Amino acid sequence: MLETMRILSVVGARPQFVKLAPIAAAMTGRAEHLIAHTGQHYDELMSDVFFRDLGIPAPDFNLGVGSGKHGAQTGAMLAGLEEIFESAKPDCVLVYGDTNSTVAAALAAVKMHIPVAHLEAGLRSFNRRMPEEHNRVLTDHSADLLLAPTQVAMDHLANEGLGRRSVLVGDVMTDVLYRVRDSLAESARALPFDLAPGGYYVSTLHRPDNTDSPERLAAIIGELATLKLPVILLAHPRLKHLAKEHNIDLNQGAIRAVDPLAYPELVNAVANSAGVITDSGGLQKEAFLLRVPCTTIRPETEWVETVELGWNVLVSADLSVLAATVQREGAAATDATPYGDGHAAARTVDALLTGISH
Ligand code: UD1
Known about the structure:
This protein is α/β, with parallel strands linked by helices. The protein has helices spanning 14-27, 44-53, 70-88, 100-111, 131-142, 151-159, 172-186, 208-211, 214-224, 237-245, 263-271, 281-289, 304-308, 322-326, 344-355, and strands spanning 6-11, 32-37, 61-62, 92-96, 116-119, 145-148, 166-168, 201-203, 231-234, 255-258, 275-278, 294-296, 312-314.
C-alpha cells in the first residue's frame, strides 16, 4: 500500500489564510496535512479571524516572527522554518502566493532537498519595484511543481522555461469566494456600519508604492474624499501606521476609515457595494467574481483578465482621473470564467499527489 504523503503548508499573511482554507479542506482523507504559520501577520483581525471563520485547523507550528524590515523578517523565517522542516520531515512543502513567507519557505525547503510546490505560480506584474514580484519569480524558479491559477500565468511560466513543471489548477480564492457567497445567499446578513445596498464604495490601500510616500498617500486620500458616495476604507495596519506617522487624516470627506473586515463580512460588503477601489491583488479578482466594478490604484495588475473583460480600470500616475473612473458607468455583463470553476483546491491536491514523488 502506498504511504500517505505528508504535505506541510507554510502561510503567514492574510491572503494566504484565505487560500489555505479550501486546500486544508481538500486534503482531508487524501494526505497528511500540516500547517506552519510564520507569524508575519499576527493581529486578531489580520490572522485569527480567518482561521476561525473559514474553518481552518489551528497551525501545527507558529514561528511568531512578526513585523520587520524585509531582510530581518525573511531571515528569521528562513532560520525558523529550517528547524520546523527538520522535525516535521514533510514529503512536500506547499507555499502560497507572493509574500516574504512564501519565498522564505521555498528557499529553506529546496536547500534541504524537500520538494516545493508553489500555489498561485506564474503571476507577474513585471514591476520590479514590488517586493512581491521578486518573491514570485524567485519562488517559481526554485519550486519543483508550479500550480498556476490561469492560462496567462501558465504562459508566463512557459516563457521563463518553466512549462514542464507547471500545471493549470485554477484559482483557489475562487473556491472560497463561491463557498462564502453561497452561504451568505442562504442567510441574509446585515451590512456593517448601517450601509445601504449599492450606496457605498469599499476601499483598501496597503502597497508600499501608495502608502510610504506622504505626498502620494495624501493625494490618494484627497481624491477618495471627493467621491459622491461614502467610502468604507478598510484600513490595513500598514496604512494606519503610516497615515499617523505622516499626519494624514484618513477620515476626510466621503471616507470612513474602519478596521479590516473578516472574510465573510468582506464578501458581503463588496457584493453589495457600488464599487471597489483598491491596490490589493485578491480584492480586484473578488470584485470581478462578484461582478462589482473595480478601480485599481496601480500601474499594472497580475489579474489582467479583470481589465480585459472591462470590470477593472487601472489608475496610477494621474490621480486626477480617480474619482471619474470610480464613478464610471458599469461594465458589460459577462459569463467568462478565467479563474476556474471553484474546484481548484481538489485539482491542486491531485497535482500534488501525482506530481511530487516521495
Ligand atoms: C504583506 C505582503 C503582501 C500582501 C499583504 C496582505 C510581503 C512583502 N508583503 O504586506 O504581498 O498583499 O501582506 O495584507 O510579504 N502589521 C501589523 N499587524 C499585522 C501585520 C502587519 O500591525 O498583523 C504591520 C506591521 O507592523 C508593518 C506592516 O503592517 O508595519 C507591514 O506588514 P508586512 O507583513 O511587512 O507586509 P504587508 O504590508 O502586510
